[in-house]
Amino acid sequence: MSPEDQILWAVALPLIGAVGIVLAAKQPNLREAVTLVTASLLFVDVWTLAPSVLAGARPAVDAFEVIPGASLNFVVEPLGMTFACVASLLWIVNSVYSIGYMRGNKEHKQTRFYVCFAIALASTMGVAFAGNLITLFIFYEALTLCTYPLVTHKGTEDAMQSGRTYLGILISTSIGLQLLAIIWTWNATGNMAFVAGGFLAGNIEGPEVGLLLFLYMFGIGKAALMPIHRWLPAAMVAPTPVSALLHAVAVVKAGVFSVVKVIVYVFGVDYLAGEPSGQWLLYVAGFTIIVASVIALRQDNLKRRLAYSTVSQLSYVVLAAAILSPLSVIGAALHIAAHAFGKITLFFAAGSIYTAAHKDRISQLDGIGRRMPWTMGAFAVGAVSMIGLPPTAGFLSKWYMLLGALETQQMVAVGVIVASTLLNAAYFLPIVYQAFFKTEATDGNPGTEHGEAPWPIVVALCSTATLTVLLFLFPGPALELARQLAGG
Amino acid sequence: MSVAAHLPALQVALPLIAAPLCSLLRRPGVAWGFATLVSWVVLVIAALLLAQVLSEGTLIYEMGGWAAPWGIIYEVDTINAFMLLIVAAIGAIVTPYARHTVTAEVPAEQHNLFYAAWLLCLTGLLGIAITGDAFNVFVFLEISSLSSYVLIAASNDRRALTAAYQYLVLGTIGATFYLIGVGLIYMMTGTLNISDMAERLPDVANTRPIRAAAGFITVGIALKFALFPLHLWLPNAYTYAPSAVSAFLAATATKVSIYVLLRFEFVVFGVDIGIANFHFSEFLMPLCVLAFLAGSTVAIFQNDVKRLLAYSSVAQIGYMVLGVSFYSLDGMTAGIVHLFNHAMIKSALFMVMGCIMLRVGSVQIKDLHGIGRHMPWTMFAFVLGGLSLIGVPLTVGFISKWYLILGALEEGGYGFAIAAAVLISSLLSVIYIWRVVEVAYFKPSPHGAAEITEAPLGMLIPTWLLIGANIYFGVQTDLTVGVARQAAALLLGIDL
Amino acid sequence: MELLGQFNYWVFIVLMMTGFYVVIARGNLVKKIVGLNIFQASVFLFYISMGKIFGGTAPILIEGADDTVIYSNPLPHVLILTAIVVGVATTAVGLSLVVRINEAYGTVEEDEIQQLDEET
Questions:
Q1: Closest partner residue to B169 among C32, C79, C100, by Cβ?
Q2: ipTM for the whole complex
Q3: Which residues in chain A are closer than 8 Å to B426, comparing Cβ atoms?
Q4: Which residue, A28, A319, B19, B287, is most buried by CB atoms nearer than 10 A?
Q5: Do chains A and C touch (3 or more CB pairs under 8 A)?
Q6: Region of A390 on the Ramachandran plot (φ > 0 left; ψ -120 to 50 alpha; else beta)
Q7: pTM for the full model?
Q8: What is the tens place of the pLDDT at every residue in A21-33?
Q9: Is the distance from CB of B126 to CB of B165 less than 8 angstroms?
């Protein structure tokens, strides 16, 4: 199979899987098998593409014309490769986890859940391999639409309300701002394809650059820059596997991925660095990091704390891109992977606690580490990665960001990174401390008798925790892909 | 002479002769079958005409052999061949669809008359598009209008009667205004032939009668295509008309009127309209922006889905005329291509409503709870049509929006604000479409809804044909955008 | 003089506005139709009077007459024949709608109909 076919298969496989899931709706075991097989095939398909991309190949394929002059076009470049590898790998883990979680909690409408999940993955692959702005936009929108039923899965009034916030913010920013930015770009340059080094230079000048950047950055609502971050906490009403894979990995990463792509391949790092009107992004990202961390500090609901932590961590990527130095761009690319592994572990742990103990508040977690050692151990690893300490992947990405910030003398960025590291520690370490060193408040409640969560959940969260450490120990390929991105 | 040479005459004569014949067919099924057959032949003729025009250029057909400017000529160029195709295609799809809904909504003994009026309406719309004579336009305008009043009133809802009456009064005023305008031009130029008028007008352009004529014609036609704030007849008419009639009229009647506006603004009065530097765009453009902002906003608050779609039509008409009012190639292309695209979108959505009306007996949002489970194909058609209306990529709606925004951005300064307004209006359309989708898919169905079943195939197939066209022409734009571009160049007098 | 010289247009405008006013101001549906008729009739007069040429005779070709005879323009008259037919058809459709409305609502007054609609 040629690399070109592999690209198309990456998008088609999950869609075919979705059809298979519908056909197997009556037999849950077969249905779950279809999900797992599809996920495995996708994994093989995507990961076998990686070696050639590492070697410098950029396979591309044109599907058909969307509008005269612009096709549905896929190009595999290093950043998209990283993103696709992470997403396809975690889909397998997450599928195992979903099966345990959905069955453990006896959720309704499981077929719809798995179908939407598969379509979401197809869209994610489309985003990762998009070769031009219009392709990116199409899959970006598809991702929003197919995750809506997942967010409102519970079907309660509360879930519907959150679903409206979710859809409302994501659709209105993308159609209202992002589409305008794309058409403006097309109008000004006659080009939409991602080009190393950008293609805006010489076509748009002065304050208009800042305005266009504004349209892109806030148009990509999935990157959750403040003040358009509210959809992300709202999306936490979804079942935990959704929060884990989509709102820690696929959807939010599609956002920051798009941000990095636009900065690197549309504006061009050097061009943007020379335009004073584009400098505001650094401050908005810094502001988001700090404020979201402070809000996270005050959340008692575990998933909401994780959600605000995600808002803050996403802005690391935006900040890293906005520092506009090659080193920080490496940091941005690494952070997409590092945060994915770390945050999915944390969400898995939250879901594990919910399944085994039916607890969702941090204040209830005293002493839970003794009952659920694997879960809380993995949680600790994820938390360390969020803070950015060795031996976890989070350390690597933060290290490169700091180097980039120091190199370009962006002292504001340095300050933000240092301050937020402290804040991260402040909102994660107490949970770990509580879980292992405080004694459980029994107060005669019989419901507190529980052990670990079902084995698929435990296996899933242990493997993602391991991945977080492995990425630190063997960063080679990921680092190489990131270097290629930064090197142009 | 071969049949091919008489195609322009046949295009109109065929449905015109078929209409009285149809009224003689007492058996409902037969009348419907006959009307369907005629509508298909009409489509074939329209397609042949477009092919002929694209290969050979403008066709001139002298009615009865009388040469212009004394005789009436039919002049078929790219733009009206395109209009003919729109009208004929919608006719050929909606007529077969009509059978079940008409059986449910119109008494059986009136079916022959209903289909006769239907064919007359088709005749009128085709006639407006094909004729090259300004007075003839008036006659066809009235043929189509009178028959559409009858069609709207055929519904079993008594509010349809008042809606038809309201439409009759406003429609007649509009047509009479148009007549006054044509009279004034005739007075000054001595001709009724549209091309002739265009030739002679520059000599007398700066006179008061011509200025008055321009005003009368623009306002009269704007009343016919329901440009905000002259849209008052439209929501009631589309809401209470029989479902098939809503689907047919929403897709064709307003579009054909916009075509008349294009003819007069660009061909007769000319692009520069030497009338004391008076530009139509200066007052059309703000009205269009108001039209789509107000139309979309009001649509959000509607509880009757047909009324919601009707207000959305008011908004969409704003888009079409907005594109035209830019006076640029991209803008004009956007306007013309949206004539075609919106015909497909809105017709499909009204057809979905017809399916629901048939099975549920209501199109109130509160009655649609959980309908997505009972009528999966119908509602999925609504979702796709809705996405197209919003303007999601890979649908025709996106193509229209794309060119419209490109056209706006080319205007520079204020164009940016207009582009933003277009996008805001798109967001509003997300809200009103989503209200329906949310209720249909994510609300539990009420008790007693179990017996609701999927719409009959006779309705689903035409509906899905149009939905398919929405996707197909959203990807394959050579025909639509290509023809629209040629037509735009023709109207603007640009050589491509 | 110029104002009076074009008195036919004044008649046209006065009639048109009268008809228009009736359409807008009257609540009775039948009277609205009558107003619409006046409105249309004014346009007929406008067309017919515009075809008149001072000193022109009826446009009937007389055998053997010399070329100096001036005829009035017949075309507007012919057009108006068509327009009258359209007007009659409009009136017919309008009135039959009113009959149906009367059957359905039991009234032909606009405000009463509105009230009945609001009640349901």
A1: C32
A2: 0.92
A3: 175-176
A4: A319
A5: no
A6: beta
A7: 0.86
A8: 888 888 888 888 8
A9: no
